[in-house]
Every structure is written in C-alpha cells, then in structure tokens.
Design brief:
The protein is an alpha/beta fold. It folds into 2 domains: 125 residues, 3-Layer(aba) Sandwich (Rossmann fold); 102 residues, 3-Layer(aba) Sandwich (Rossmann fold). Helices cover 44% and strands 17% of the residues. The protein contains 11 helices and 8 strands. The strands form 2 sheets. It has a 4-stranded parallel beta sheet, sandwiched between helices. Strands 6-5-7-8 form a 4-stranded parallel beta sheet, sandwiched between helices. α7 links the parallel β5 and β6. α3 runs parallel beside α5. The chain starts with 9 loop residues before the first strand and ends in a 17-residue tail after the last helix.
Length: 246
Amino acid sequence: MSKEFFGWRARIGIVYPASGLADMEYYSLCPPGVSVHITRTAMSDEEGSVTLETMQAISEGDDFSRHAADLATIKPHVIIWMCTSGSFSRGPEWDSNLREILSKNGRCPATTTSTALIEAIKALGAKKVALAMPYEPRLGEKLIQYVENSGIEVVNHEGLGLTTDWEIGRLDPSSLYDLIRRVDVPEADAIFLSDTGIVLSPIAEALERDLGKPVFSANMASMWHALQLAGVKEKMPNVGSLFRLK
C-alpha cells in the first residue's frame, strides 16, 4: 500500500473485536492505493472469550451503529464486520441485519466475514467444503449450520476447542498447516479456515500447491469481498487462488 497517499483508490473500514491479533494481515491483503481503517469493539469479558455465549453477546451489541457512524467520517467505500463467529452465531437473518446497520450508518456498502465466506465459496465454484476451526464444538456447529443453510455441503470439519482470542491468534504456521491437512478430504472442493484472529495468507499458496485445491481464511474472504464491493478488481499474487479470480 502506498505510503504517500491515503486510500485514493478505495478506503476499507473495519470493525474488529478488541481482542483480535491479526490487524497486520488486512494491510497486506490490499493492493496499492487501498487503505485500511480499523475501529475496535468492546469484548464481553476481559479474557477475550470465544464461546457461543460471548460471541452471541458481541453480535447482539448496539454499538455497531456507532462504530459505522465513526467510520463514515473517513468516507469509506465499504465497511466490514471482521468477525466470523460474531456474524454466524445468531444465524443468517441476524447477519443480514448487521450488514444493514453497518451500511445505513456507514453510508456505504457493508459486509461481514460470514457473508464474505459464502460469497468466496460461490466465486470459487465450490459446492462442497471442509471447515477447519479453532472453536469449541457448539460454536463450530453454528458455523456448519450457517454454511449449509446457504446450500453448500460441509463434507468434513475439525475444531481445536480453543476458547480465547489469545490462544487462537497465537496459532503458528505449523499448527495451521497440520489442521488444514487433517481436515482435507478428496470430495472437498475447497477448505476454509475460520476466525479473524488467524493469519493464513503467507502460507496459503503452499497449502494450495500441496492439496491441489483452494484454501482460504476468514481474513482472506473478508478482504477479498470488501475489495470486490469497493470496485477494486486487481488480482494479487502469492496469497491464494481467491485473489486471482477475475
């Protein structure tokens, strides 16, 4: 991203949980001329818990209107609610409500990570997916339901049972690589790694070469969809097949 100018091509506003650790990846997934502007939500507890109860509480919050209105001051081209479990945990209808709240108050198009996930799967032409997740089983089941509600078959899934963003955000490349290889099955057209606290893009190309299919994460899907909504269609090298689509 050019250091000389702010977002002359597009400005992406991000609403991100306070306990998220992956801010740096959002900047790296932007082509020149696109800037990223992040505001953070409060967490429901000081541990940054990622459980069904805490993520439903976060997604229910009334602060989305205020966060979007704050971001509106930088005249964004798109706003993202950058949280997978905070957008799928209450189901598709509430996820749609969140997009409407963000769009109305941000005065621009809006998306969420869960919406971006479905759009990415469709863009890749995938009908069957495998889901790699850091979550506890109850939260993982909500993601499976969300994906299958969109008409996409989940052919395999695995969760790590982690319940805090601190644990999730500190997963190393070796752990992520092993998780994704374990969840892969021949019938899966693509593999999705959930949670916006995880950085995957630096190793996505290696995984795709080894597995012979698209591999993408919550952050990758979110930024790809945001760029699409902002009208930035540039292909990007070395970050996986999703960013090479037309």
